[in-house]
């Protein structure tokens, strides 16, 4: 179908870009007629949003994501919700298909993610739900952080609300303690392990544990990076700047886009 006012063509059922069908709406691949620029068009059902009482969450997601422009964060171009198109889908599906990723792919994703989160934290934004389902892949396989519905914009960078997926939650959130932007660092640790091994490090009932058993297949450099988060106190975790400089990341990352890469014009 087409949208004459916007000069946009929209794909319908059967199109692989229609990634997720939820009770709140559908996602379509849309393309501008003149420039052929592709975007993901998210169509939401207002009645369902009002019924579930999540208007505030939607407003917060739009407010936060519209102000973030970084190569490894899924860009929101307009409140009409024509978001940047990520043609290679979710990292979750890539991991499901391959079961686990090699050192090069994992280190590249960790570098991209650490850079994107550095940008978010500089903007006083805590994502709080970084996981494979919320990481999309661009044309060259680069990571795009998406789904800012659970994120917060707070100048103090300190919160107490529990938000996120249990496998990725750090101890302070599970225990209901005040937390800050370091909750996103914990997710990097979990993601690094999950990509190299094929499953999250914590699948026991004791969700507050911080010890990790490394399989023999785990590269020593990756073990060293993950071990920097084995302390209970988040103030002692490795900061994002040092993750970017970590020797294992530097040795194996083949990052596609530099951190200073300009976004494609809309």
Automatic annotation (TrEMBL):
<dbReference type="GO" id="GO:0004674">
    <property type="term" value="F:protein serine/threonine kinase activity"/>
</dbReference>
<keyword id="KW-0547">Nucleotide-binding</keyword>
<keyword id="KW-0498">Mitosis</keyword>
<dbReference type="GO" id="GO:0051301">
    <property type="term" value="P:cell division"/>
</dbReference>
<keyword id="KW-0067">ATP-binding</keyword>
<protein>
    <recommendedName>
        <fullName>non-specific serine/threonine protein kinase</fullName>
        <ecNumber>2.7.11.1</ecNumber>
    </recommendedName>
</protein>
<feature type="binding site">
    <location>
        <position position="42"/>
    </location>
    <ligand>
        <name>ATP</name>
    </ligand>
</feature>
<keyword id="KW-0723">Serine/threonine-protein kinase</keyword>
<dbReference type="InterPro" id="IPR008271">
    <property type="entry name" value="Ser/Thr_kinase_AS"/>
</dbReference>
<feature type="binding site">
    <location>
        <position position="147"/>
    </location>
    <ligand>
        <name>ATP</name>
    </ligand>
</feature>
<dbReference type="Pfam" id="PF00069">
    <property type="entry name" value="Pkinase"/>
</dbReference>
<dbReference type="InterPro" id="IPR000719">
    <property type="entry name" value="Prot_kinase_dom"/>
</dbReference>
<dbReference type="InterPro" id="IPR030616">
    <property type="entry name" value="Aur-like"/>
</dbReference>
<dbReference type="GO" id="GO:0005819">
    <property type="term" value="C:spindle"/>
</dbReference>
<keyword id="KW-0132">Cell division</keyword>
<feature type="binding site">
    <location>
        <begin position="133"/>
        <end position="134"/>
    </location>
    <ligand>
        <name>ATP</name>
    </ligand>
</feature>
<keyword id="KW-0131">Cell cycle</keyword>
<keyword id="KW-0808">Transferase</keyword>
<keyword id="KW-0418">Kinase</keyword>
<feature type="binding site">
    <location>
        <position position="23"/>
    </location>
    <ligand>
        <name>ATP</name>
    </ligand>
</feature>
<dbReference type="GO" id="GO:0005524">
    <property type="term" value="F:ATP binding"/>
</dbReference>
<feature type="domain" description="Protein kinase">
    <location>
        <begin position="13"/>
        <end position="249"/>
    </location>
</feature>
<feature type="cross-link" description="Glycyl lysine isopeptide (Lys-Gly) (interchain with G-Cter in SUMO2)">
    <location>
        <position position="131"/>
    </location>
</feature>
<feature type="binding site">
    <location>
        <begin position="84"/>
        <end position="86"/>
    </location>
    <ligand>
        <name>ATP</name>
    </ligand>
</feature>
<feature type="active site" description="Proton acceptor">
    <location>
        <position position="129"/>
    </location>
</feature>
<dbReference type="InterPro" id="IPR011009">
    <property type="entry name" value="Kinase-like_dom_sf"/>
</dbReference>
